[in-house]
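ERR on first pass: missing label on line 2. Operator R.T. fixed the label and resubmitted. Corrected input:
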Amino acid sequence: MSISTFLMRYIKECLIIACIVIGVFLLRMMFASTSSHFSYPAYFQVRQTENILTDAIPISYDELSYGGRHLTINPIYSYILAIFSRVLGIENALKVIPNLFASLLVAVMFLISFEFTKSKAISVLTAFTAGFIPVFFAYTVNNVSIYTLMIPLSFLASYLFIKAHDSQKNRRMFFIVTMFMIFLHPSSWIWLFGFAVYFIICWVEHIKIANWVIESFIAIFFFALVWTTITFRKALSFHGISILWQNIPIAIRATSFTQFNFFMAISLVGIIPFAAAFWVMYKQGYKARNKKIIFMVAQMTSAFLLLWLTFVSFFVGLMFFAVSLLSLFPLFYKSFLEYVKKTKFANYDKFVWAGAILLLVLTSAVPSLVFTALEVRDGITSEMVDAAEFIKENTAPDATIISSLYDSQFIMSHSKRKTFMDDVFLLAPAPDVRFDAVENIYSTSFGTVVLGIIAEYELENVYILHDSSRLEEYWNFELTFTKDRECFMPVFFADPITIYKVECELVEA
Amino acid sequence: MRIKQEKIAIIAFIIILFIVVCAPYLWRVALGNTSIAGQQYYIAKGMANEVSKNGMTTFSEYPFSLYILIIGYFDQKQSMLFFMALGIAASALLYLFVRTHKFRPTHSIFIATAWVISYSFASLVYTDGITLFVCVLLLIALLLIRHKKLILAGIFLLLIAATSPVLLFASVMIVLMYASWHMKSARKIVMMCIAPVAVALMSWLIGGQFTRTIMLTIPQTQFFQELGSIGGIPLVVFCLGLGGGLSFWNKKYKYAYILFTIMLVATIFIPSWLPFVAVILTIISAASFLFLANKVWHSQLVYRAFIISFLAGLAMASIFGLQSISNEPPTYVEQDSLFELAKLAPGITLSHANYGSLISVLGKHESFIDELDGPIVGESADDIFRSIRLTNVTDLLSENEIRYIYITQEMRSGLVWNHTDQELLFLLRNNVTFSKVYSDDFAEIYSVNVSYEQLS
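pass 2 clean. output:
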């Protein structure tokens, strides 16, 4: 069925979906515009986009990060944002475009759901739920995250794969979308790994795979392999096999997973899709041996395995996992409605629908809004902006700022000063050791320890930024060594942020 | 038409071969660096120099190795030409060997070209002479086996045993793999391998040649080229080779598969086998590529994407590989400091073990410690590096008759010391005992100013 025929036949549903997309987009924008700044993780992307706008190329050698280091990135997304920034202005573009991309997931999930169930009502309900997947909604609203584009694209590729069984034209579309996805970001390997898992499941279950699927996989796999090795060549040869963990310090990897318990993870994913997916996996995937469902199960398994092995960060893995789960939800709901029809509740289908909507609102939409509100609250405060402004105005251009890992990108972006360490770890010089040093600085009671670290890294003109509200979460300490005012002079204070200038130097006896 | 195609393919093969064989060397020369890339050659040459001094006996420190004997006869330029000739011979032999099988001539050329492009070949020519030498001998042996001249093939295996026992075991594995894949009865082949294996075992057990010649091969830290390994396998070759191997699975070749799996796993423990695994995987991946390229695909778009991706992957691996080989140490800066050392009066030179053979071959000075020295010498050197008392250092230097100290930037930044004024580095400030005779961005040479008689 062509797109125009589809639109004509399902005009009403298309209008509803368009309304949901716009509604989700407006709600996202409402949260994003509560602050004139972005969330902390956004500032790496902000700096890259700014650099493209001024110099036409992304930052490949970052003079500010880690006191100067090489970067390895795939800049396609930054270029996309830069193109829109030319039209909308950088601040507007970085707020609007990622949220627009993310809202399109609603339409993609409608298509997947309709393909599985052929039910307009169920598909609309699934699409609505897709707009409010807690982990995806909360952690992409103000982050300028690439996953706002990657996740809809991944699931569009999955939808086109399912549809590609029907016609040659769909196969071409599937191939083009997949190639673009690979071109865009290495997280496409999560989808590709899901494709491989699909082969394994089919092989184990003795399900025949069509030749075009194998051929497409071979071509896509080699393209991904070559493209990744070209774009991340430096990082690959520098880190070796440990690139799988992206050079993230062990301490951070360990804590990023232990911060969240099982129930927290489920509430981020959505309780109903989580429960429904396992039922569908067993009933439709395993028993009915439906290849389309097996493909979605494979995608879910891929996200889960990579999350479990810590090859992807907690939130990224959870986002892919949550959307995969949701793609299986309509099958559960269809079976549930069919079951209800066989019971005494058959005449109360409107109540069943109302109950389902209410349940989804309570388990998906409400947690989404709560988590987003919390995320926005934890964003950049006016005190932090003042601190960054102070650094920009009152420190020498070669000054180095020691701060919490997550403040660094904002400081680099706003104050244009060197930082000791930040959260971009690929090609970073010994981030494990530096992270220990930062932890030492914020936990020690002795000024000599701090001065020792400063001397070890041969840092000059050093400032220590202490955000007591933030640091308490991570290290739970106060900077007791700063009582020595001669060596650590407070130069800025706006509760909870203090900036200390390091005035002493450790000299060997 | 087919003959014309074959001619064009051969010409293209020759051009690519010459580019791969000559480009890194010419690039180095253009940068003013006439030294051979990598450390392996210098270790071998250092051994050859020792052997020419002390002779080569079964129980000596440097037992018999055909490769060391040959390297001993050549100077640097001749050695480089020798390696280039070996590379050309190896690729030609691979082509001839593949051609004797069911492949079309153009396909045989493609397989040989794939090996030449696939970086592992270039890394053999430039950084792993002994493995290349063994490769040539092995390919001759395989060709002879193909033509059922088993006694001659056995002689070539004996030559490999006389070159390096560790590589002989890999060669025997490949011969057995080939026999179990291609021949109806492998009994004669097994019999043929007994004598070379016995010789290799004897030289290992009696002369310790196994551990010595292992030093001549490059230590692999990673399996894949993209992950920073010199001589590693390009990822595209590995994936297509492995995928192709699995899809060609046939029960009657099970022994070949088992032997290959053993080899693959063994490379984790014996990294010097990696170039052999690379050759096998390259042949399989090139054959798989030809199979895929010649089948009917459902979509031209997908087909083209695959062809372009694979060839681009292979080409990129080769280009980046050749670039990294060109930049392999000793660089022209390193070379300069060693040439300066060569101008100084004779005397034992202390440096890190990694620079031992470079000091001996390029610096033309006896090195206190080199890559082959055991822990006892290593500890003595470490005692000097770690000492914080001048009297201790001068005692140790005089005891070991050390005349020069060669310190590189790498030693200063982690290889030996972590700080600028640490231990011996601090003591070197004493310009009465030590005088700096040379300094550049890469290295510093200090002369020890205390006469041995005085100290003793």
